[in-house]
Amino acid sequence: xxxxxxxxxxxxxxxxxxxxxxxxxxxxxxxxxxxxxxxxxxxxxxxxxxxxxxxxxxxxxxxxxxxxxxxxxxxxxxxxxxxxxxxxxxxxxxxxxxxxxxxxxxxxxxxxxxxxxxxxxxxxxxxxxxxxxxxxxxxxxxxxxxxxxxxxxxxxxxxxxx
Length: 162
Fold this sequence. Notes:
With 162 residues, the protein is mostly helical. The protein has helices at 3-6, 9-21, 27-41, 49-60, 64-70, 79-94, 107-148. α3 packs across α5 (64-70).
């Protein structure tokens, strides 16, 4: 059984917060990497978001771990809501009709349906990603020095019988 199956989501969240707090760079460098990760996390690149964020952080010389942690803004619990919001934003901005499932399937119909979903989703993700990246940069820059002063207690471990 993988370690991620034994840990609760709360424990995983706490461990990610600890990793974020313990990063050794300046708050500005960490906040830039985190904002980059949030931006990439809000793009419709499911499955490859962390490698993309780390690659971009490497190219832009930002904090790679902070970028990888920022990607977790989209997770199995938040992704349906985020992508639905991005799709609706993009659809309204582009003045497109809401995509509907076709009555019959052919390559052309599926291609048009994919374009009718992917284009508004991409436009909405660029807008929402930019806004959320700016907000996350400001919040990380403001709260990282405060978070570093906190003393976070160890997670209680179950005792093993001898």
